[in-house]
Amino acid sequence: MYNLIKGSLATYCCLCLLLILIDPAESGQLSTRFNVSFAQLDSCETYSVPNTGYGYRRFYMLRELSNNNRKAGERLHLKFYVLTAMDAHILLSVTNHPRPNDRVYEIVIGAGGNTFSAIRNAMGMRRVATNQEPNLVSLYDPTPIEIVQNQNGELFVYIPGFKKEPLLQFIDEAPLVINYLSFSSFGSNTARWFYDCGFDGYVKEETKTEKLLSHLNIQAENASMPANLSSISFHFQTRSLAYEQTSSLLQTRMHMMMHWRDSRLVWKPEDFGSLESFEHPDLRIWKPHMNVLNGALQSMGQVLQSYELMVYANGSITLYAQNLQLASWCVDSARNWPSERVTCDIELGLNGQEGQENVALIYDDQRKPIAPNEHVNTPSGWSFTQMSVVLVENDSQRRYNPKGMMQKMTGDVAIEFTLQRNRSFYMTVFYLPLIACQMFLILSFVLRSTRRSSLILIALLIAAWGLMYMTRYASPHYVPPMMTAYKVIMMTTTYCYILHICIIWLDLYPPRSKAPGWLVRVINSNVLRCILGLRFSDSTDYCDIQENPWHHMAKILNNLSSILVIITFAIVDITSGF
After folding, report:
1. CB-neighbour burial class of residue 2 (10 A; exposed 0-12, middle 13-18, buried 19+)
2. What share of the chain is helix, strand, coil (3-state, %, to 5)?
3. I want to staple 360 with a disulfide (CB 3.0 to 4.6 A). Which of 312, 411, 449, 473 is the partner?
4. Ranges for the Farnesoic acid O-methyl transferase domain (predicted)?
5. CATH 2.70.170.10 boundaries in the chain
C-alpha cells in the first residue's frame, strides 16, 4: 500500500513538472488534425451561419478580400477554415443575386452526413465532381479549404494537411468569371467560417482610402456632435404628392440634401492620394436626427434611414436622401367638394444633444442641381399648385424631444404644399349624367304611355349609379352640394313616376263620381290655362270639361308638374355650383 501511494505521488509530480515546462505561448498552438490552431484563427475574419437551413444570405466581393492570393496563371486562389459537423457549402458566383438555375460553382465539403464532397454547377443540383472521403469536417477541429481556378477554367479544391493532390477537380469548358463568394450550411447545422487570415500571409497593405476612413472615424470622436453647430442648410426636390382626403393623410416622396460643416474632419488631400471627397459605408461621424413633427404612420420618429454621406477635404459634409418618403396629417376643413383647395404642410425638426440648443434648419433654394417642385407627380385626384417653406416661429408651440421633455420649436421649418382637386374631371363625370337626367325628365312630360315610363326609369337608374359612384370619391364627413343635387333628382324622378301612374289612372280609369264644382271652375280658369300653356276653353271644351273633367285635370297636373320640375332643376343647378 505504501509503495502504491509513493508511486502515485511520483506520477503526479512528473505531470506537474511537464505542465510547468510547456511554454504557455505554445499551448495555444498544439497540433490539431490539419495542423491549424485556434490561436492562429484569432487573426481571421469570421462569419457564423445559424441553423436556419440552406441559403446564401451574405455575399463578399472577391476584390475586397485580402486572401485572394492569385499567382501566375490563376484567376483566383482562396483559402478558408470551417467548423461544422457536416455540409460546409461555398458558393462562387458571377452575381450577388444568383437565381436557382444560374450557372455557379457550389462546393460542398462533408455532404451526406459528412460522407462525401462534391462540386456542383448550380445551387443544390447538377453535380460535376465527387469525392467519397468521409469525416473531413468537424465541430472541434478547423478544416482548411483551398480553392484554385486557373486561366484554363480548371477548378481545384484542396484540403491542406490531408493530402497534396486535389480533393475535387472540375474542368469547365466555359469558365465563369467569379465576382462573389458566399458561405452556407444545410438543415439545422451551424457553421463558423474563417477567412482573410493573417497567418496565411495574404494581408494587404492599408490603402489610402482605408487610412482616410480610419482618420475620419478617429477625428469624429465617436460620432459626437460638432462644436458650435447651430444650423444645417437643406434643399429638396419634390417627386410625388398623394393626398388621401378620407384618411386626412398626405404622402410625399422627395430627394433631400443637407449640408453642414465639421472642422474636425479636415484633411490634406496630398496625404491621402489626392482625395478631395470621400464616402464609405463604414464612415462613423455625426449625422442629424430629423423628425416629422406632424408625422403619421412610418414617419413618426427618425425619418433619415437610408442616405448617402459625402465628406469633403475642407470639412463640409453633404447628406443625400434619395426617394425620402414622408407621411403627415392634413385635415381638409372645407365643405365644397369637388372644388377643394387645401394647404398641407410637413413640419421638420432636428433633435439636438441634451443640454444644447436646437439645431436650426435653413432652406437654401439656391443650391443645385436639385431644384424644388420639378415634374411633381400627383397620383391622386389632386393637382399641385404651389410650394413654400416657412419657419415655425410661434413661441407658444412646443414639441417633445427624444427624452420626452417639452422644448420650443425654434429652428423648425414647415414645407407647405397647396393642392387643388381636379374639379373639371369630377364636373364632367358627375354633372353630365345629372344634366342628362334632367333632360330625360323634362322630355317625359310631352310623352305618353310606355315611352314616358321608360325615360323616367332610365333617369332613375342614371341617378342611382351616379350617387353610388360618388360615394367612392366624395368626403364621407359631410354631404356635398352635388350629392344633394343627385338626391333631389332621385326624389323628382320618383315623383314623376308616381305622377305618370296618376295620369294613366285619370285618363283610362277616371272616378265615376261627379267632379266638385270648384274643381270644374279651376279647370275652366283662363288665367290658369294661360300659365300652364293650355289653350283657352271654348264652348266645345266647356261642355267636354263638364262631361269629362278628369281628363283635363290630368293635363293640368302634367303641365303644372313640368313647370315645378323645371324650377326645381334650375335651383339645383345654381346651388350645386354648376
Report:
1. exposed
2. 30, 30, 40
3. 411
4. 51-197
5. 209-421
CB 56 within 8 Å of CB 68: no
Q: Which residues pair with 60 in a beta bridge?
A: 181
46 in Cβ contact with 82 (< 8 Å):
no
What does the buried/exposed string (b/e) look like for 72-105 if buried means 16 or more CB atoms within 10 Å of the residue's CB? Answer: eeebbbbbbbbbbbbbbbbbbbeeeebeeeeebb
Cβ atoms of 360 and 411 closer than 8 Å: yes
The total of other beta-carbon atoms located within 10 Å of residue 341's CB is: 14
Closest CA to 60 of 174, 193, 187: 193
Measured CA to CA, the distance from residue 440 to residue 462 in angstroms comes to 10
Write the single-letter amino acid at 19: L
Scan for cell 459626437, then name that residue: 224
Domain 209-421 part of CATH 1.10.1240.10: no
* Strand 413-421, strand 180-184: pairing: unpaired
Distance (Å, whole) CA 221 – CA 261: 15
User: Per-residue pLDDT for the chain (578 aa), expressed as one digit of tens each?
Assistant: 445 445 555 554 544 444 444 444 444 444 567 778 887 888 788 899 888 888 898 898 888 777 777 778 888 888 889 999 999 999 999 998 898 889 999 999 999 999 999 999 999 888 999 999 999 999 888 999 999 999 888 999 999 888 889 999 999 888 898 999 999 998 888 999 998 887 776 555 667 888 888 888 888 888 888 888 888 888 888 888 888 877 778 888 888 888 988 888 888 888 888 888 888 888 888 888 888 888 887 777 778 888 888 999 998 999 998 888 888 888 777 777 777 788 888 888 887 655 566 788 888 877 665 555 555 666 666 777 778 888 876 544 555 555 544 455 566 888 888 888 777 777 778 888 888 888 998 888 888 778 888 888 999 898 888 888 888 777 777 788 888 888 888 899 998 898 888 888 887 777 777 767 676 666 666 666 666 666 655 545 555 555 667 777 778 788 888 888 888 888 888 887 66
DSSP assignment of 19-61, as one string?
HHHS-HHHHTT---TTS--HHHHTTSEEEEEPSS-S----EEE
**Region(s) of the chain under CATH 2.60.120.200:** 38-197
b/e 3-27 (16+ beta carbons within 10 angstroms → b): eeeeeeeeeeeeeeeeeeeeeeeee
- Listed in sequence order, the DSSP H helices in 397-480 are 423-444, 449-470
Considering the four listed CATH numbers 3.40.50.720, 3.10.20.90, 3.40.50.300, 2.60.120.200, the one that applies to the domain covering 38-197 is: 2.60.120.200
